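URGENT: need a sanity check before tomorrow's submission.

F., can you look over the NUDIX hydrolase record below? I want to be sure the sequence and structure line up before it goes out.
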Amino acid sequence: MFGFHADELKVLLLKWNNIDWSLPRGRIYKEELIADAASRVLKETTGIHDVFLQQFHTFGAAQRHKNYTDDQAARLFDNKSKESREYELVHESIVSIGYYALVDFEKVVPNLAASYQWCEIPAIPDLLFDHNDMIELALVALRKDLRYLPIANLLPPKFTLREMQKLYETILNRTFDRRNFHKLLMSYDFLIKLPEKRVGTANKSPHLYQIDFEKYELALQDGISY
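Structure tokens as predicted:
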């Protein structure tokens, strides 16, 4: 669960037994569709629902338990003996199907009794299992899919071209030439220039814009360049 707000990109972390950080996760029921399971698990673990989820990778490598200590393993396996844990890890394989979502973390507040945090990407700690690897691959997938994702939904109802540019720059972790990027944005027909300007800025007051979401959806079908 990636969260964006005010030029910050973060990821939602949960605490396992209020001790160890990990990603939200859960199991699939026998007769349940994978996409339905992803939505259910997200709601059960975080209280968040009705968000767009995108499947991005299947994780099934060996040694997926590499990132936790013997003490963590004892708690994760209900204090079974080390020999019993090693037998389970050798003879059983857990395959995980990863989904990501991108939301405004100021508007989407997890409904949790357990501890959680929206963590900035550079500050992510060592997580359980291979969850650090999952985040890295999810970021790659998010940036690759960005041309087709409705990320303008993360902007306020009225925004400047600079604010839209910063949205792309933050998620992609790169910078764009302001003039060229604004020219590219204006080449699309979904931006509506308003007679209002952003007041209270240090520089010249920039114009405000809105999205024509019907035209925006059509543009997303072909992919929006950046």
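My own read: The beta strands are 2-5, 8-16, 20-22, 54-59, 96-100, 102-104, 116-120, 191-197, 207-211. The longest helix spans residues 131-145. If you see anything odd, call me.
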